[in-house]
Amino acid sequence: MYKLVELQSGVCSADGFYADGVSAGLKPNGAKDMAFIYSDTLCEVASTFTTNKMAAAPIKHFKAKGAFETNFVLINSKNANAMTGSAGVRDIEEILSTLPSDAINPVMSSTGVIGVRVPKEKLIAGAKLFDLTQQQPQNAAEAIMTTDSFSKQKAYRVELEDGSSFNIGAMAKGAGMINPAMATMLCFITTDAAVTKSEMQEILDEVVQTTFNAASVDGDTSTNDTVMLLANKKSGVYEREVFKEALHAIMLFLAREMVRDGEGATKLVTYNVTGAKDDVEAQKVAKTLSDSLLVKTALYGEDPNWGRIASTVGASGVEAYEEKLTISFDDVCVYKQGELYFDEIMEQKAAEVMKKSSFTISCDLGIANGKFEAYGCDLGYEYVKINADYRT
Amino acid sequence: MYKLVELQSGVCSADGFYADGVSAGLKPNGAKDMAFIYSDTLCEVASTFTTNKMAAAPIKHFKAKGAFETNFVLINSKNANAMTGSAGVRDIEEILSTLPSDAINPVMSSTGVIGVRVPKEKLIAGAKLFDLTQQQPQNAAEAIMTTDSFSKQKAYRVELEDGSSFNIGAMAKGAGMINPAMATMLCFITTDAAVTKSEMQEILDEVVQTTFNAASVDGDTSTNDTVMLLANKKSGVYEREVFKEALHAIMLFLAREMVRDGEGATKLVTYNVTGAKDDVEAQKVAKTLSDSLLVKTALYGEDPNWGRIASTVGASGVEAYEEKLTISFDDVCVYKQGELYFDEIMEQKAAEVMKKSSFTISCDLGIANGKFEAYGCDLGYEYVKINADYRT
What we know:
The structure is a homodimer of 392-residue chains. The first copy, chain A, has 392 residues and is α+β, with helices and mostly antiparallel strands. In chain A, 32% of the residues lie in helices and 26% in strands. In chain A, helix 6 links the parallel strand 8 and strand 9. The longest helix of chain A is centred in the middle third of the chain and has 21 residues. The termini of chain A are far apart. In chain A, 59% of the residues are buried.
């Protein structure tokens, strides 16, 4: 038995962590565009990065360091520092070299436009504004936003049965489950749990699969996607399964928040796939559904067009049969194993479900026990608007 | 040496072929919604169908016939006869049984809404309006349209060096390179060339790869996609390579017409990928580009955002390196092997190219000789509008 107590202090929730956001003049009107996370003792780091072959300079810089401990992460928005070659990595080194000596082995993370050198002078000047004694997680969470319409944080105190506890806090950005290639998904998690580096990497790799990787992340993987977990171990407390569950709760919350904040999105839809040949096939169906333009536009139109769901299941490439498939919108079953009973009453009931801002589409393939849950949203005019003139 | 002479008579161009379109009351306002293609002698048939596991009833009916010759194809729009189970196949049998005895082994093809039984009585009454002596290819091409904004036909007389000739004609429907899952791609080709069944199937399978399958056909494969080639051999003339080239010209034209007529599309873009590890990897890049929401919305916004092109190449999963990649918009090179020379002048030049209704985006991966050309379009507000209320 353990207890999760929600905290309001984001990445500053764990003992010894500091964070703030400042304006370096990258965003217009003095909006915050640069953040730091600082720990007053060294941290071990677990991370997962984009699989994009054009991985951005900050990721190259991080990976080139090999095994290391750090206590400082610098983050900027508005410029992704991607497709900037070795010059992009040198820019990072130069910027980080100007930080105060309290920052040990600092690393950087960026999000924004691809293919433009970072404004080095502005970032160096911005970093001079950092006050490492500040605990302003809200400022930091705002500074890393791009097309996000709200900031995203979550933190827990994890209380174990023996009365001991540790904290985990996180912030994330991304309105990009629809298209993480541009909007980029970044997530920074801090903890004072006494977890080892190898164990936290193992847990992070596992948890990311059913959280961020289930959040309608399609083939368009960003050049900058990053999840970074920093542990300074100050609490001296750790219990593997509890740590994993708390981490899962935080990452799932943030993943769903990203989907809810999807560019132009008005609905958060859970795709609950069951009865597939195995979990891998269920995941394939769930992701194909959450990425389908046809399904997304039907959601936006609040059109209970279950034929598009069926067609998308059929197109996903997995084992599937018309006469074994069952489709429901929340608890309204619209198609059951070959029975066409979608009359006007049924259509009206399904249309009622689709008017909700959050609901579940269930597909049972009726073959075996494979299952997976994915999270997606609709696609409307606003998505086109945001993406047709992002750069300008 | 041979000569292709363009003809204006679509699927009635080849000797002995008849076609017409009528209104059976499926579309509103008496618009044509039912077509036939008839040959006064039996034809051998080559075909390619959707790989969707929820293949529609007409495809199940066709495949269940095994090897056969026919002289009659019945086509309807507005209802896909998909997800209708064995009842859907029985509906087809019943409808076809009411045709005049001139129709030997008739087959059916459908496009429209998924998951609704076909209005059998209307289709039987509609078929009674058919006059098999009519050669009205334009009527037939119009009757099979759904969200298409124009009808699509192409035909050639193929003149060989010795003075002999044969004809090939075709009609197609589909505004659905963006989302063939709904709009469905149908294409019917007729010829009097003396081609054998096995040879024409072989050629069709090959040609479809670089034509319809290159036209931004993404994972959302329709339940109804069909390409059918009917040969009555009346000309007695045939030459393999010439037949293949003429067929390729017709199918490429129709594939590009479909993209140009893409739902809400304003631009036809050719993705010319070269320098990949092999042709398969080049195809993967070209298709990922033509299907990317990010790229499509940038095209719509006429934003020369080459960073999205680079990111999408990186996300496609093939071997690729930032320092070997070169990207051009027509003849304006915007990124060359690590060189960032995208200044304001270059941006203006690239923006000029993007204002055109048709242009080429070239990506050279600089690795080996793999190449592929794909065809795509932009995605704008109109796409969302069409798809958010297709059924209603």
